[in-house]
Amino acid sequence: MSRDTAPDIVIALEIADPALADRLATLLGGVAGLRLVAPGEPAGVAVVSRDREATGVLGETDLTPRELDVLALLAEGASNKMIARQLGISVHTVKFHVGSLLDKLDATGRTDAVAHAARRGVIDL
């Protein structure tokens, strides 16, 4: 490398899904100034994907299992009363979970929460 060129950005891919890892490697492999490392080789940057099955959630959002239950029912269009009956909890508790979902997903309403969750891969529509 000459003094006139910027050093490579060295990237490690730690992706559980092999198909996604291959797609990312193909996309990033053609970018000038980026270099993908071999497994075990040190890198300056790592792209890491958590195992979706293990966490139930992708991304920064850390939702509880009960919040995921409530979110799934919200995605089906269930009212607070319907969610309470389905999960065997009070309407007050459902309201608490919905409020927590709105905060964690940075959403302005129920529909917005479902949309945000779908975009982040938290739920599949």
Q: What's the topology here?
A:
Layout: E1 9-15, H1 18-29, E2 34-36, E3 45-49, H2 52-55, H3 65-75, H4 80-87, H5 91-104, H6 110-119
Parallel strand pairs: 1-2, 1-3
Descriptive overview:
The structure is a single chain. The protein has 125 residues and is of the alpha/beta class. The chain folds into two domains: 9-49, no CATH class; 65-119, Winged helix-like DNA-binding domain superfamily/Winged helix DNA-binding domain (Arc Repressor Mutant, subunit A). Helix content is 47%, strand content 12%. The protein contains six helices and three strands. The protein has helices spanning 18-29, 52-55, 65-75, 80-87, 91-104, 110-119; strands at residues 9-15, 34-36, 45-49. The protein has a three-stranded parallel sheet, covered by helices on one side. α3 (65-75) packs across α5 (91-104).
Q: Could you state the order of secondary-structure elements as H and E? A: EHEEHHHHH
Number of self-contained structural domains: 2
Structural class designation: alpha/beta
**Approximate shape:** elongated
CATH class of the largest domain: Mainly Alpha
Total beta strands: 3
Computed over alpha carbons, the radius of gyration is 20 Å
Q: How much strand content do the residues show?
A: 5-15%
